[in-house]
Each structure stands twice: as C-alpha cells, then as structure tokens.
Write a structure and sequence with these properties.
By secondary structure, the protein is of the alpha/beta class. 43% of the residues lie in helices and 15% in strands. The strands form four sheets. The protein has a five-stranded mixed sheet with strand order 2-1-3-14-6, sandwiched between helices. Strands 9-10-11-8-12 form a five-stranded mixed sheet. It has a four-stranded mixed sheet with strand order 15-7-13-16. The radius of gyration is 23 Å and the shape is globular. The two termini are 28 Å apart.
C-alpha cells in the first residue's frame, strides 16, 4: 500500500508537463536559466569535523562546476538547527534547503516549515526510482513528496577479529542467530583469576540511543511494532517484552555485557578492548579504520523470526518561502548532490539511497566498502521508527522521556521488563494523544 501511495503521489516529468498547471510549473522552474551564481542557502546538522569537511568539499566541487548556482552551507548541532529553523521560518528568513533526518520530516511538514517538492523532482529530473521502497515512502507525507532521500544508515554488527580468533571462533562466520550470538558473547567475555570480568563480550550502553535502536530492531524481529493500528504505543506486546528481556538477560543472567561500561561514561570501550562486539551504524567505520583496529562488520543477527534492522536516513527538503523564485536552483543542487553522493557517504560513513551511486566504483571501489558491504546487504531489512509528527518529543536521545526512562529502568534492573514496558506505554500514549 505504501508503494501505491508513493506511485500516485510522485509526478514524473512527463506527467507534470501534461497537467493543467504545467505552464505555471514551467515558468517557475526553468532549467539552467539562472542569474550568475544564484545563491542558495543550506542548513545542516553535520557538525562533526569530518562530516563538515566532507560536506563542504562536495559543495565546493558543485560551486566550481559552472551550474550558475552557489550553495552556502551553515552547520548547527541538531537541536539548535531545529529551533533556529522554526524561528527563522516564522520570521520569513528560512534557509532555502535543509538537511535533516527522514524521521523528523512529518513534524516539519505538519508545521508547514517545508513544502512538497513533487514539482522540483519532476523539473530537475531527480530519479527517485533509484531509492529503496522504505526511503521513498519515508519522504512521502499526506500523499506528497517532501524531500530527497540521500542516505540510509542501519544498525550493524562490529567485532574485534583478534579477540574472536583468540576465543577459538571463526571471524569469517559471524553469528546469524540469537543463539549463536550468545555463544560468541560468552566465549568473548574474559575474567581474571578472581572472577572479575576484564572484558565483556558485548557493549550495551544504557544511555544515548544505542540501546533503543537495538531493542527496536529485536522487537520487529520478533514480529512486534512500536505503534498499533490506532496510532498508540504497542511497546508492551509479547514481541516487545521478549526483545527487551533478551537484552536484560545478557546483563543479569549471562553476564556478557554491563550497561555501565562504554558509552555511559563517554568511553570508547570497543577501542580500549573492554568489549569485543558492539552494534552501531556505518558511521563508525572510518573511526575504526583510523584507529587501525583489526575489526570486521556483519549484518545484524536474527534474534527472532525474521530479519529487521533499525535505520534512519538523511534527507534534503525545501523550506517554505514567500516566493518560489529559487526552486529551479534548489532542484539543480538537490539533484546534483543526490547523484554525487558517494564522496560524502564514504567520508561520513553512510549508505547512498541511490542504487546507481551505491553500485558505482566511486563507492564500491573505496577502502571502506568491505565494511560498508554488510550494511548494504541489510537494506531490504531496514525499519524506520514511526514517521509521526511528534517524533522529536517521543524519540529523544537522552532526555527523561517515557521511552528513555523506562528503557533505562529495565536495563538497570530497577524495574522488571513487564512493568517498565507498561509504564512506557502509558507515558507514550499520553504524549501521542496530546494535541
């Protein structure tokens, strides 16, 4: 059904020109008819040093390409970006383009901070047929396309090859099931003569969003969903409880992980060899390569009945403006960036949405690709968190929300899993029902 909605909503270039509004569209979106170096402002949240450098380098290449458009990027941390963007839009000073996450799109579409871009897609020739179904559906809201999906970054499996070999395991055959994963975790957990753990098999930090992403993946692997068919929380389901109990048991029953090791203290437990395995996105590939670690990546094991992997994506949208004068320039850069995404994808550590870019030598020929390959292989299994207007309030990284506090309570052992999920549902439903 999602594909049908997308197919009905997305205008091809030929359809756009055939519609009664084609004259106005053609007038608003001339191709190549720009004043010299028409300025287009782009705001983004890629504020890490490598990310900003990568993005600026790609934009410099575009600006030197003689397309008559000059893009001026400005980076903010995500929270600042969102608040500043909303305020600027209300004051009529919004940036032309904004790069953000696909899961945040419904909120900004509902608040009318961004505009539909079916006309921009049609006029620019941006080929969204290159994008997997989940990505195309993700940028479609109320039957209209609101952004260009740029990348996808799923959760993946990292492991230390040296430790795996020392434990008598085969690094070329990573675990594919929950049972095999537990076996690895046990063998990779090391204790000293007094019985104290000196290295855990797996990292499961109890803060930030990593635990949430892992639990979310396992919930869907067990056949669960985050929301029910009425749009309310389904986090207290049997599938959800089974997923969270598995994680809690890794801590309290099997002793192969400790939520106080690693991310909670700002430590890089994987690099310091306090843990042998972790689940995280492709954005860590370049870091591990720079550290000269002997590591490998694999697809997430299947802990339930089917493969499912948490993922998010970056997308690029057009701010709603008083005038459509810059739409042609916006579309020119948006299409070029989509078609030339191999460089930022490789440097930042994300997977291009475009099939053509994903299969190009510019991406597959890189040193990083042997690590990216497992993430590419998991693309058919990705699951986005619910694309809802209240995403930012429901899915916080580390604020004391019903989701965060109850997930932490279960993992810390201060609440039994059923009680934590019951309280989580009650809190989430109150958020979701609130006008």
């Amino acid at each position: 059904m999602a594909n049908d909605v997308f197919a009905k909503s997305l205008l091809t270039r030929r359809q756009a020109l055939a519609l009664g509004a084609s004259a106005a569209l053609a007038g608003a979106l001339p191709r190549g008819a720009f004043a010299a170096d028409e300025k287009v402002t782009l705001w983004h949240g890629w504020t890490g040093a490598d990310n900003t450098t990568a993005l600026n380098g790609v934009i410099d290449t575009f600006n030197k390409g003689g397309k008559g458009v000059a893009v001026e990027p400005t980076g903010y941390d995500w929270d600042t970006l969102f608040s500043k963007w909303v305020v600027s839009s209300a004051g009529g000073r919004a940036p032309d383009l904004v790069l953000f996450h696909i899961t945040e799109l419904p909120e900004f579409a509902t608040r009318k901070v961004i505009r539909p871009i079916d006309d921009v897609v049609a006029s620019s020739g941006l080929d969204l047929s290159q994008v997997p179904d989940a990505g195309r559906t993700g940028v479609t809201f109320d039957g209209k396309v609101y952004a260009a999906p740029l990348d996808v970054h799923p959760l993946g499996f990292y492991y230390n090859v040296d430790m795996v070999q020392e434990a008598g395991l085969d690094p070329s055959k990573p675990p594919k099931t929950g049972e095999e994963f537990l076996e690895w975790a046990k063998k990779l957990t090391v204790k000293d003569g007094s019985g104290k753990v000196t290295r855990y098999g797996f990292e499961l930090p109890n803060t930030w969003a990593t635990a949430r992403w892992i639990w979310f993946s396992l919930m869907y692997q067990n056949g669960g969903t985050f929301l029910d068919d009425k749009g309310l929380a389904a986090v207290d389901s049997e599938a959800s409880q089974k997923a969270l109990q598995y994680l809690v048991d890794l801590i309290n029953v099997h002793g192969v992980t400790n939520p106080e090791v690693g991310g909670n203290k700002g430590e890089d437990a994987f690099a310091s060899k306090q843990v042998a395995m972790k689940f995280i996105g492709p954005w860590e590939v370049n870091l591990r390569m720079a550290q000269k670690m002997n590591f490998m990546t694999a697809q997430l094991p299947v802990f339930g009945q089917k493969a499912a992997v948490w993922a998010n994506s970056h997308c690029m949208a057009v701010s709603k403006q008083k005038s459509d004068d810059k739409l042609a320039a916006d579309g020119t850069f948006m299409k070029w960036f989509f078609d030339n995404f191999a460089a930022p994808a490789t440097t930042v550590g994300i997977i291009p949405q475009s099939k053509a870019v994903r299969e190009s030598a510019a991406f597959t020929g890189t040193e990083q690709y042997k690590y990216f390959k497992s993430f590419v292989d998991d693309l058919p299994n990705i699951v986005y968190e619910p694309l809802i207007p209240k995403y930012l309030s429901v899915f916080s990284f580390d604020k004391p929300t019903p989701l965060v506090t109850n997930l932490q309570a279960a993992l810390s052992g201060s609440k039994p899993v059923p009680d934590a999920l019951k309280a989580m549902k009650e809190g989430l439903d109150a958020q979701l029902k609130k006008g």
